[in-house]
Design brief:
Chain lengths: 447, 627
């Protein structure tokens, strides 16, 4: 055996053993621990390629040199994939069948593991008849998570094996299938695979090059350094449509309200992008609008940020349609009139257009004050909402964190803006506002 | 008595329809005398009359009693018409009224308009030009007139997008709309208008601050035939490229004074518009010879106005070659117009039915060119040779164009009596003649014109200081004369003016500044020229007597009294008080402090606009003028 091959095999064994230990553990691990895979998992490519900087991992000069050669060969494999026919003969000489064999063996082992897991699942499903639903669901989640992790590892290992572009394409399609399964699973359970996973897994599939690139363009820029053949316009051009079949775990969220367009069962399902979107969408569309504008007393909102946005321009909507709708911008009014038959612009009465500035200011201060006081109760309200709709299905722990963070982000601005005047106003204006806003502001706080 | 009855009988045997058809062919003076013939004729005429042109608000009740079928109300001679007058008329003619002209009235408000719109459901035409005080409320009132088809809103400066939006939504049947100088209307209003009023055929957007955004929906209008975009700096070549997408119906386009329109935009426009008949690209400074290629496409073109552009010979030639149906060509102040180009045009358009040539300030045109025009363009109707080298020989050939109606010879110093006598002997259809500062003209030339051109309506003889009273006596024969400018003709006296005032009963505009005309002349004017609308008596040796007499002319709207030394404040006040219809008054600043404030505000409340002029300023201005 050549020193290259030996080393290569060693690295593979090293990485695979690392995975093995993890995988065996992971069967019984809690769901959240899954994240721990990633650091180790990502180490494996660096073992091969990152030696130039991390030479201490290899004791002697020979070893480092050998690893260099190894990495170069691996890179050349990658080159062969990108320009398959023209340079095939040249690269085929460097391609080592014995190393390939080792890798295949590793894959075989992995596939066996996978089989075992599936058998385990089948066995558990048999038992599941007697168990409570909740436990079954939990176990299912665990199994799917483990399955996903094994599949991903398989893919990454297999990716470094493949010598030609065609294979990588077929691999990519396979990966796409797996990805599809993964997202499907996430959709079925209405639950969230931890976010870190999709972040760490780079979508360009550059793990073959043992360098991570967040963007496809960055990879191409990087590849220029590998030779003149990567400087041709064709090589630098954006690869078309391949990205769609990449194993990108784009997570999308579904609204829990059945029949809603944002619900996954809807025919024209339009998924929501983040958990915050889910929260705001649910509040806006399926909850009562509890926040009334203290200025116009007509507009109602269920998201407090919307109320604040409205209050910024409430009363300043000077563009009025005959139907009673107000607009802050003239072009919006004219668009509205152009759209609807029979609507005409209404002539504003002189002087009635805008609020007196000082009054408006004081009022906005008042509402800010109320919101500050209101903050705790508002949070409580959110919690109540959750327990009512069984939110554990819709909001992951992570999602909860972001939502509460967003809750914090909503409030501090007025706090700082009106820091000086808020107190003095609080005394004078609280009397006016306690009855109006009593619904969501605790009277004790105001008096 | 029996014979008189016999004479009346044939008329009485005619049915009322036939008589009213006959009355349709009579002009206003004839129908007036018709109604004065007998009681039955009087009532016939009252029933027949469709148009009412009010002279004074006081006469309205009588007119309302007499005429029952008025379709058109014209308030142009009655500028002091206010809300009360208009609403009374609207109440009386609610069933028949179709058209209202308020273009010279300033005293009405949106209340009158909303009453008008509410009562007269059949209102089709409305002229609100110069209503500078009207706001969006008035526009909203107009919008209630659902059947409105023609609306003029020129210089309604306070009407904004909101107002025009109301009109766009309310008046769906609008076919003609003029928004000239409505400077508060922007893209949004114009866009909505195009969106809602799809029947629009003529649209005037001159001097509006509009851009591509507003123009492109306008160009989508299917029926648009006339579009005026005079002086729109926001319109550029790109806008004209939009024009080609949807301008199949466009026939008249006016893009004069659009400083951002260049040759390229015009070329792209011309390439796709084959229906264009009238094109005005005056004072678009960047028009160059490239345009000449485009004219091949425009065989239908009848009018081209190229005023103020630099024109190359190639352009002239291509115009001459391509535009076979050309009727009017205008070269005002065009720098590149030369003999050769003109001869091209003249040769080609020999057979054109009527061709107008405007060539003011074309310095390169020589005397021979006019001979050419005269011999080739026999059907010339409209010729403007202001400030050119034209001489008597040129005029002789020009006078062969027997259809000539409008001749402008201002500042043509080579023209003498001989040339004018040619014109007088041949051009019988002449209606407008401009002889401003033709210094060589004497009584002989004017008499020839007065004898040969009986249809003359306007003559400008300002600063022709060789003419005397004989000319005016001769001009008294032109009974259609409406405008007479004899400013600075120092040989004229009251005698000549009296003769004119007795002969020319339709005289409406008179400028006798710096003439030696005394009270006698003004008194005879007051007695005879009841149609007088506008007069300038600055620098005339008149006194209070003449001015007060002048004030008895009821139609007088525009009076300029500057530097009249013998005038007293009392006389001036009395004259102004007597002149009820006065709308515009120019006075010396020295009177401002002497006339009581209350009186001035009273006069301005009537709708009269007083402009104060300082003598010193005037003198420094007049220093520029050659004497």
């Amino acid at each position: 055996m050549d020193p290259d091959e030996k080393l290569c095999a060693e690295t593979w064994v090293k990485s695979s053993s690392g995975h093995e230990s993890l995988n065996t553990d992971s069967n019984n691990r809690p769901f959240t621990d899954f994240d721990r895979h990633h650091p180790k998992w990502e180490e494996s490519p660096f073992n091969g390629c990152g030696v130039r900087t991390l030479g201490q991992q290899f004791s002697g000069f020979e070893g480092s040199f050998a690893s260099d050669v190894d990495s170069q060969r691996q890179k050349k494999d990658l080159h062969g994939k990108q320009i398959p026919e023209a340079h095939e003969s040249g690269y085929m000489q460097n391609w080592d069948p014995s190393a390939m064999l080792n890798n295949l063996l590793f894959l075989e082992k992995k596939i066996h593991q996978l089989q075992d897991l599936v058998q385990l699942v089948v066995g558990r499903r048999g038992q599941a008849m007697n168990q409570a639903d909740e436990i079954l669901v939990q176990q299912q989640q665990l199994i799917t998570a483990d399955l996903t992790s094994i599949i991903v590892q398989l893919i990454s290992t297999a990716g470094s094996l493949l010598p030609s572009l065609k294979n990588s394409e077929s691999l990519a399609s396979q990966l796409g299938q797996f990805g599809g399964i993964a997202t499907q699973l996430a959709g079925v359970t209405d639950n969230v695979v931890p976010n870190k996973m999709e972040d760490r897994h780079d979508p360009t599939g550059v793990s073959e090059d043992h360098d991570g690139f967040k963007r496809d363009a960055n990879l191409r820029m990087h590849m220029r350094g590998h030779g003149d053949e990567y400087k041709t316009p064709a090589a630098l051009a954006k690869p078309h449509k391949e990205s769609s079949s990449d194993p990108i775990f784009i997570k999308r969220y579904s609204c829990p309200y059945v029949g809603c367009k944002r619900n996954k069962d809807h025919k024209k399902f339009q998924p929501l992008k983040t958990i915050l979107c889910v929260k705001n969408h649910y509040k806006r569309t399926h909850c009562d609008k509890n926040y009334t504008c203290s200025r116009c007393h007509t507009k109602k909102f269920s998201v407090i940020a919307d109320l604040k946005t409205h209050e910024k321009h409430c009363g300043r909507d000077k563009w009025l349609c005959s139907c009673g709708t107000t607009f802050s911008r003239k072009d919006k009014l004219f668009g509205h009139i152009a759209l609807f038959q029979g609507h005409t612009p209404a002539i504003p009465h002189e002087g009635a257009g805008a609020w007196p500035s000082d009054q408006g200011q004081s009022r906005s201060e008042a509402t800010n004050k109320v919101e500050q006081l209101d903050f705790n109760s508002c949070q409580g309200l959110m919690e109540v909402e959750r327990s009512g709709d069984d939110p554990s299905n819709y909001f992951s722990p992570l999602g909860f964190d972001t939502s509460s963070l967003a809750g914090f982000q909503e409030f501090p601005r007025p706090l700082f803006e009106d820091a000086e005047s808020s107190f003095s106003f609080f005394l004078s204006g609280s009397g006016d506002y306690s009855p109006k806003n009593g619904r969501y502001a605790a009277p004790n706080d105001l008096e | 008595m029996q014979r008189l009855q016999l004479l009346n009988n044939p008329m009485e045997s005619l049915s009322e329809e036939i008589i009213s058809t006959i009355l349709d062919y009579l002009d206003s003076a004839s129908s007036k005398s018709f109604s004065a013939t007998s009681k039955s004729f009087h009532s016939l005429e009252s029933r027949h009359r469709k148009t009412l042109k009010l002279l004074h608000p006081d006469s309205l009740p009588a007119a309302l009693r007499r005429y029952r079928h008025i379709r058109r109300l014209d308030f142009t001679n009655c500028p002091s018409a206010d809300d009360g007058v208009i609403s009374a008329a609207a109440e009386a003619y609610s069933a028949t009224l179709r058209s209202v002209d308020l273009s010279r009235s300033r005293l009405f408000t949106h209340a009158a308009l909303s009453l008008l719109a509410a009562k007269c459901g059949g209102l089709v035409e409305l002229d609100l030009s110069n209503a500078t005080e009207l706001r969006d409320a008035a526009a909203a009132a107009v919008a209630e007139a659902r059947n409105l088809e023609k609306l003029w809103m020129g210089r309604c400066r306070l009407v904004s997008d909101i107002g025009i939006g109301c009109i766009a939504v309310g008046c769906k049947k609008l076919k003609l709309l003029s928004l000239k100088w409505c400077v508060r209307i922007t893209d949004l209003g114009v866009g909505l208008l195009a969106n809602k009023c799809t029947l629009l055929r003529a649209l005037d957007l001159s001097y509006l601050p509009i851009t591509d955004k507003g123009l492109s929906p306008v160009l989508q209008l299917k029926n648009l035939k006339e579009l005026a975009l005079v002086g729109c700096p926001g319109i550029d070549d790109d806008s004209l490229k939009h024009l080609k997408q949807a301008s199949k119906s466009l026939e008249v386009l006016d893009v004069s004074y659009c400083s951002n329109v260049s040759c390229n935009g015009l070329a792209s426009l011309i390439n796709d518009t084959d229906s264009l008949h009238h094109l005005n690209i005056a004072y678009c400074f960047s028009v160059t010879s490239d345009l000449s290629k485009c004219f091949y496409k425009l065989s239908e073109l009848q009018t081209i106005k190229l005023d103020g552009c630099h024109i190359s010979l190639a352009l002239m030639k291509s115009i001459a070659d391509c535009c076979s149906s050309l009727k009017e060509l205008s070269f005002f102040k065009c720098s590149g117009v030369g003999d050769e180009g003109l001869s091209c045009i003249a040769r080609k358009h020999r057979l054109a039915e009527e061709a107008g040539h405007h060539m003011e300030n074309c310095s390169m045109v020589s005397k021979e060119a006019f001979v050419f025009i005269g011999t080739r363009c026999q059907s010339l109707e409209d010729a403007d040779f202001t400030e050119t080298e034209i001489n008597d020989e040129g005029l002789e050939t020009i006078s062969r164009c027997s259809k000539l109606k409008n001749l402008k010879l201002g500042l043509c110093l080579n023209v003498t009596d001989r040339g004018l006598s040619y014109v007088g002997s041949r051009c019988q259809n002449l209606t407008h003649l401009d002889l401003y500062r033709c210094m060589e003209i004497t009584d002989i030339g004017i008499s020839a014109i007065a004898n040969g051109c009986p249809l003359l309506e306007m003559i400008d003889m300002a600063y022709c200081d060789k003419i005397g009273d004989t000319s005016l006596t001769a001009l008294a024969r032109c009974i259609h004369l409406k405008t007479l400018e004899i400013r600075g003709c120092s040989c004229l006296s009251s005698l000549g003016l009296s003769a004119v005032s007795m002969g020319c009963r339709q005289l409406a505009v008179l400028d006798i500044k710096k003439c030696y005309i005394t009270d006698d002349g003004l008194i005879s004017l007051a007695q005879n020229s009841q149609s007088l609308k506008q007069i300038n008596i600055s620098y005339c040796p008149v006194t209070d007597v003449g001015l007060v007499a002048l004030a008895s002319i009821r139609r007088l709207q525009n009076l300029t009294v500057l530097n009249v030394m013998q005038l007293t404040v009392d006389g001036l006040v009395a004259a102004i008080l007597g002149c009820r219809g006065l709308m515009k008054l120019k006075l010396d600043t020295m009177y401002k402090s002497r006339i009581p404030e209350a009186f001035l505000s009273e006069i301005e409340g009537r709708g009269c606009n007083i402009q104060w002029r300082n003598k010193a300023v005037l003198r420094s201005q007049s220093a520029y003028k050659p004497q």
